[in-house]
Amino acid sequence: MPIPAPDRFTMSLGEAIYSMRAIRRFRPKEIEERDLRDILDAARQAPNGGNAQPWRFLLVTDVEKRARLGELYREAWWTKRKDEGINGPEDIPAGKGVRQSAMRLADEIGEAPALVLVCSNSRGEGAAQSVIPSVQNLLLAARAIGVGGTITTLHSIVEERVHQLFDIPAEARVVYCVPLGYPRGRFGPVNRKPLSEVAAVNSWTNTPDWMAT
Ligand SMILES: Cc1cc2nc3c(=O)[nH]c(=O)nc-3n(C[C@H](O)[C@H](O)[C@H](O)COP(=O)(O)O)c2cc1C
Asked: How far is the CA of 73 from the centre of ligand 1 (A)?
């Protein structure tokens, strides 16, 4: 009897939440089907509007399809940058910033051992919103078994070709594209603004002292 999925995620919830970074560099090691299954199974436990579960998790492991998706992702990524007035690598500050690693991901995403196209099965805004919590479940479950990934989005410029590549029906929508793999290199702790800067009690600016600790 295989171990039931919930019993495999033994990392504490606290550790998973407080150590889950956006992972964009992957070792070229395949993720076992059992692990992929359990990661997707965790995704489908997520809250969603009216329990309609308007999602479809399209897992991409085929080498050629990953490579083609990688090309489309790269085109989408640079189209988004051009929309922002960024025309090429020379416009992206050097260093260890998010933009640099996102740019590298745009070159390498097709080599991630697995990608999940997190889709809604209709084009309504409600369906897309319902999909969002499932991605957090997916990433936390992955984190708990040592697999990393990050949320990314595509661009309408590649939509038709992505639909064609994976036989996605016109009424469905790809909400996120999540590369998954075992992290390559080290990743530091989560770095976020202090709670007192992002939360308040009873009124927008009221941040009591207990929030600071
Ligand atoms: C809605 C959304 C869209 C994102 N899009 C991208 C993306 O297109 N490319 C990328 O590399 N990371 C993307 N990210 C990942 C964020 O850059 C990352 O979560 C953030 O920088 C925090 O990273 P950290 O947890 O490692 O600190 C996205 C995250 C979210 C929630």
From this structure: 14
Confirm or reject: Cβ of 8 under 6 Å from ligand 1.
Answer: no
- Ligand 1 centre and the CA of 150: distance in Å? 6
* pLDDT surpasses 70 at 199: yes
Q: State the Cα–Cα distance between residues 165 and 89, nearest whole angstrom.
A: 28
CATH number of this structure's domain 5-212, picked from the four choices 3.30.70.100, 3.40.109.10, 3.40.50.1820, 3.40.50.2300: 3.40.109.10
Cβ pair 190, 21 in contact under 8 A: yes
Over 90: is that where the pLDDT of 1 sits? no
pLDDT for 109-161, tens place per residue? 999 999 999 999 999 999 999 999 999 999 999 999 999 999 999 999 999 99
Query: Which residue, judged by its Cα, is nearest atom 6 of ligand 1?
Result: 152
Sequence ranges of the domains in the chain: 5-212
For residue 21 and ligand 1, the question of a CB distance below 6 A is answered with yes
C-alpha 123/C-alpha 111 separation (Å) is 29
Single-letter amino acid code for the residue at 102: A
Give me ligand 1 centre to Cα 99, in Å.
Answer: 10
| Mean pLDDT score, 186-196 | 94
